[in-house]
Amino acid sequence: MSLDRRSFLRVVGVSAAGAVAAACSTPESGPAAPTSGVTAAPSSSKVVPAGPPDWAALKGRLSGGLVLPGESGFDQVKRGFNTLYDGRKPAAVAQCAKPDDVRACVEAAAGRVPVAARAGGHSYAGYSTPDGGLVVDLAKMSQVDVQGDRVVIGAGAKLKDVYAAVGKAGRCLPAGSCPSVGIAGLTLGGGLGVLARKYGLTCDHLVSAQVVTADGQLRTASAESEPDLFWALRGGGGGNFGIVTSFTFRTDPAPAVTVFSLHFPDGTAGVVLGPWQEWIAGAPPELWSNFVLGGGSRVRVGGTFLGSAAQLGQLLDDFVAQTGTRQTSRLVKPMDYLGAMKYFSGSESRQTFVAASRVIGEPLAEPKKLVELAKYPAIDLLIDSLGGEVAKLAPTDTAFWHRKALATVQVYSQATAQNHDEAQKNVNAVVQGLAGIGASGAYVNYIDPGLPDWMTAYYGDNVRKLREVAKKYDPDKVFGFAQAITPA
Q1: Contact at 8 Å (CB) between 17 and 185?
Q2: pLDDT of residue 40 exceeding 70
Q3: How far apart are CA 482 and CA 473, in angstroms?
Q4: Domain 256-460, CATH among 3.30.420.40, 3.40.462.20, 3.30.420.10, 3.40.225.10
Q5: Element counts in the chain: helices (H) and strands (E)
Q6: What predicted TM-score, i.e. pTM, was given to this entire model?
Q7: What is the DSSP letter of 102?
Q8: Are 484 and 130 contacting, i.e. CB atoms less than 8 angstroms apart?
Q9: DSSP 3-state helix, strand, coil percentages of the chain (rounded to 5)?
């Protein structure tokens, strides 16, 4: 099954941004929150060095190579996933093969040029390719080592490789679906996926991470070591605090998965969305579902169920009855875990698009107002359910704030270099409209450079603690970018 990105999103309704960082202006402060209890900073602010990095010296230290503008292959290695950002002009791309390469990059470039980690390269704002900066490309650090009920994954690994390895071992790691998304950005922003209601977010399975911080040190972040950093890495967003070089996750036994897809008549979204909200809010955690509204009228409800086709059939019958309308088609298909992940997998081809998000905290009182926002041309709305295991943790237990939310809404539009401004305008209008009907939060992995309230929208009351962690580990904003978490 090979889909372009828009078709893929209609199938699955989930994705993730890659690890991101760039340099730009930042807000002065965030909202107040309770005292966080972050321990004292490991080092104080230092004098910013003068002049550009010594690229020749850095190249001599790297085992993976350094590619500079004008050199063979530079135009290819600098590119991310979204073609809209092909015009970005980084100063260099470091192809890191081991943690010492990442340390060398930070030591050479910190305070001199922007430093941006890139894993999958799916940053929705192109933050992983900063103009005039150093791209720390982690693609060569892509090992996936299954060790019993644990898996150690290099920060450059893509989801297709993660699923292949853990699935072959009969294990499961809940994560996103787009095959070329990097495990790093996905995890650092939280990690939504089609099994989240049963198993939680990707970051909920994180045991420890190896991180190169702004002082060039390689640290182990876990519940026992650097606990403040460990807390922040679970939902605090890619590109902040340091560059992760590897992750250790706990896994679960791989389940059998029944996938499903229901189509409803065009124009019925207004009568289907309300019952869907109530249905998914009361559904067992074994059921995950999304609601996809495309082209202003097309309606599809899809998802996964960890149980028998017969059990799922009864749940679907109940839902259809609640809508008061009819379904035009129904697909119910049992699969093994790896097969289900492949089912939701889209094309790896680079795409051109504009996207953003909002979060629905609780069922909307007037769901038809959300449906009306799909009137803009080329807009798809993809509503992905939360709840279940995701909600068992408190919003402050990790940096991922939206624990108690009903769902996320991704706003997606295809775009070209010629119509980009119009597509962005339409996406912005829908995002503002969603906020106006009560969907005020946002998911950092669908990072949105135009979001006016982005810090609160992404992180809620966790902002103050996140800013204190930033002060502790990156007081000089070495990893600063337009939507970076700034030191308190």
Answers
A1: yes
A2: no
A3: 18
A4: 3.40.462.20
A5: 15, 18
A6: 0.91
A7: H
A8: no
A9: 30, 20, 45
